[in-house]
UniProtKB/TrEMBL annotation:
PROSITE patterns: THYMID_PHOSPHORYLASE
Cited Gene3D superfamilies: Nucleoside phosphorylase/phosphoribosyltransferase catalytic domain, Pyrimidine nucleoside phosphorylase-like, C-terminal domain, Transferase, Pyrimidine Nucleoside Phosphorylase, Chain C
Domain of life, source organism: Bacteria
Similarity section: Belongs to the thymidine/pyrimidine-nucleoside phosphorylase family.
Entry protein name: Thymidine phosphorylase
């Protein structure tokens, strides 16, 4: 079929047969679909949607547009994907903890998107760590150590790379069909047996409501399972940063503190354990998610997860003593100041997106793709909602490149936090399970 015929089918609200989808994906890779034709089809999909069968065809064709990893390992190959949030450093803790429970985790991660942080940017804060190794090194580190967290290489789902870049500038990012195919094509190319999805909702997530998050989670779970990967999703709260830190080096430090037991953020711990429990059950390593969660807790408390994290960092080029001397290796900002709210009372709500944007304002994220990231900056000591604050108790600390940047970020953080005279009701952290 000609590109124009394929576009016209979807323009008229008709389903695309698998051969039309295959031709489109081929056209993405070999440029036989022009940028205008890709944009037109993306918009037609955005407006008219896809059936479950079309979503599976698109996802698997995009998965197969590059290398699909195959494994021969003495345990299941599993992974997690988060739809993105602020202070979300779960992957740094989860991957080594799953590996400590007998799984293998080749985690292909992304950079920050919009106001959200990206796992890859966090690892780039570790001097020497190679976030773009070739697939052979990924294979070796995963097999030898149990997990490897790296970025997308040119060989993985190249069709998504081109489609995503065109969607980004044509108002077609926010399509459940296209988001599903984009996320899963990359994850499934890693040759997974099982996958757990963390679909976030709230002020710091892309999905603001439970309904929106549920629709995306259902699409992701259905397509991934139909494509042969056992998958479930948890819908989790992102109405405040998950960790008490937001910013690349600060989140690495925060994850190391949890792994080594020196300081544990309870919300981060709970979400990590819940996701890990789901993944271990889906992979068949544990009978159910509860048993999986207790295996995760044991992997963390025993120090086995920390040891695997340290070995992974060293194997990918980072310092061998990152666990014992993180302060020696992680870059530190020259200006560090405490932030006080001014009002006395209980933290009621946070505009978490605004906090993510304040991190970008400090230089800790990108306004455009070519921006250089300052890994040192961000916030830590972020108080959880419900906490009582006054003139003596800071709501956070800012880490900035200059006093001027610190002042702007302090103002933005204070504006993002609502303090009230009565404690707010506690919100559930895991709202729903889909799968
Ligand atoms: N993340 C992706 O990888 N793709 C999307 O379309 C949205 C989020």
């Amino acid at each position: 079929m000609l590109p124009a015929e394929i576009i016209a089918l979807k323009r008229d609200g008709r389903p695309l047969p698998p051969e039309a989808i295959a031709a489109f994906v081929q056209g993405l890779v070999d440029d036989s679909f022009s940028e205008g034709q890709v944009a037109a089809l993306a918009m037609a999909i955005y407006l008219n949607g896809m059936s479950a069968e079309e979503r599976v065809s698109l996802t698997t064709a995009m998965r197969d547009s590059g290398t699909v990893l195959e494994w021969d390992l003495p345990g299941p190959v599993i992974d997690k994907h988060s739809t993105g949030g602020v202070g979300d450093n779960v992957s740094l803790i989860l991957a080594p903890a799953l590996a400590a429970c007998g799984a293998f985790v080749p985690m292909i991660s992304g950079r920050g998107l919009g106001h959200t942080g990206g796992t890859l940017d966090k690892f780039d804060a570790i001097p020497g760590y190679r976030t773009s190794p070739d697939l052979d090194l990924l294979r070796r580190v995963t097999a030898d150590i149990g997990c490897a967290i790296i970025g997308q290489t040119a060989d993985v789902a190249p069709a998504d790379k081109r489609l995503y870049a065109i969607r980004d500038v044509t108002g077609t990012v926010e399509s459940v069909d296209l988001i599903t195919a984009s996320i899963l094509s990359k994850k499934l190319a890693a040759g997974l047996d099982a996958l757990v999805l963390d679909v976030k909702l709230g002020s710091g997530a892309f999905m603001k409501s439970l309904d929106e998050a549920r629709v995306l989670a259902q699409a992701l779970v259905q397509v991934a399972n139909d494509a042969g990967c056992r998958t479930s999703a948890l819908l989790t709260d992102m109405n405040e940063p998950l960790a008490s830190a937001a910013g690349n080096a600060l989140e690495v430090r925060n994850a190391i503190d949890l792994l080594t037991g020196s300081e544990i953020d309870s919300r981060l711990w709970d979400v990590t354990i819940a996701l890990g429990g789901e993944a271990l059950a889906a992979a068949g390593l544990k009978a159910n998610a509860e048993e999986g969660a207790s295996a995760m807790a044991d992997a963390l408390q025993s120090g086995r997860a920390a040891e695997i994290f340290g070995r992974m960092v060293a194997a990918l080029g980072g310092p061998a003593d990152i666990l014992s001397r993180p302060q020696f290796h992680l870059p530190e900002a020259p200006v560090i100041e405490e932030i006080y709210h001014g009002d006395e009372g209980f933290i009621e709500a946070m505009d978490t997106r605004a906090i993510g944007i304040a991190v970008i304002g400090l230089g800790g994220g990108r306004r455009k793709a070519s921006d250089k990231v300052d890994y040192r900056v961000g916030f830590d000591w972020i108080s959880a909602t419900g906490r009582h604050v006054d003139r003596e108790v800071p709501i956070a600390r800012v880490h900035a490149a200059s006093p001027e940047a610190a002042t702007l970020a302090r103002r933005a953080f204070i504006d993002a936090v609502t303090v009230s005279q009565t404690p707010a009701e506690e919100r559930p952290l895991v709202l729903e399970r889909i799968g």
